[in-house]
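input
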Amino acid sequence: MVVLDATGRIADLNPAAEQLLGVSNPQAIGMEVAQLGASHRNGWLGELARGTLREGAARRHGEGTLVSRSGETPVSAACAPVFDGDGRFNGAVLVLHDLSLQRTLEATASRADRLATLGTLALGLAHEIKNPLGGIKGAAQLLRSAVTDPDLVRCTEIIVCEVERLDGLVEQLRELSVPPQLQLEPVNIHRVLNTVLGLQRQAADWGTVALRTVFDPSLPPVRGDRAQLTQVFLNLVKNALEALAGAGELIVSTRLEAGFHIRRRSGRARFLTVLVEDTGPGIPEEHRAQLFSPFFTTKSRGSGLGLTLCHRVVTQHGGTITHEPRPSGGASFRVTLPVSEVDGVDAT
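output
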């Protein structure tokens, strides 16, 4: 919220506005709204405020782009006049709503719809592929038992190995087409993360990777499926370790998204965020738009379904998963999940 005096200059703003606008309260006092962020692109806020001050009536702007030092943010805005106890016009209050998370949720839902359509196709394809694979594998195993030449034996072993790899890919296709039934309960996200990190620290590819965790101990539980969430973060940590190639830093952090709420029938849903970051080479810009697309991979033997399945699970939980490049180098994956509406529960 931004409080304006009768001349249209800023008289006060709350901490949420400071964070959104990228300016402190003392710096903002006396400025015009349009000056915030030092960009002519915020002129629409000035017009909204001037209209309210001129007409003495509330005005609303559906959606606009707020430009600050930290970048561009989609917001909705409304401005209402303020009167003193004697009914004299005293200024106005400008209310800004950050729409970032809402837009991300909408984009996530749209992607989920596309994946559902693809999943129907994948189910039919998996059925058609699986039967021939069984025949090829059986024939190769019979052939292997009938030959003695070492080169031929090795060839049959390659056939069996590749058939088994394809069979695993088909199973992933089936998973993509048939979403799991989530067993929802209050889950302590830190226990999930500690389990994943404990498992991966035993892996050979951990090498000399330094682990840094920044956990908010006051986080409420999320309402989720512990096994499915474990799989999501296991996939993200494995990807980070592959990028680090045995050296560098892995950073896992959590925090409550105090500034983001989504209105739902039961009230306003709160969210928490998990960041999985690495100091590896990062993801090339030309690949970022396709990260969550099925079958897209830069790995020589990757299926391209890992992040797609992560996206589907997080979407089923009502959350979001996005990639962000790290300014200092490396990659960062942000998972945002709604917290459990049940308070005082000993989360598993």
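quick obs: Residues 100-146 form the longest helix (47 residues).
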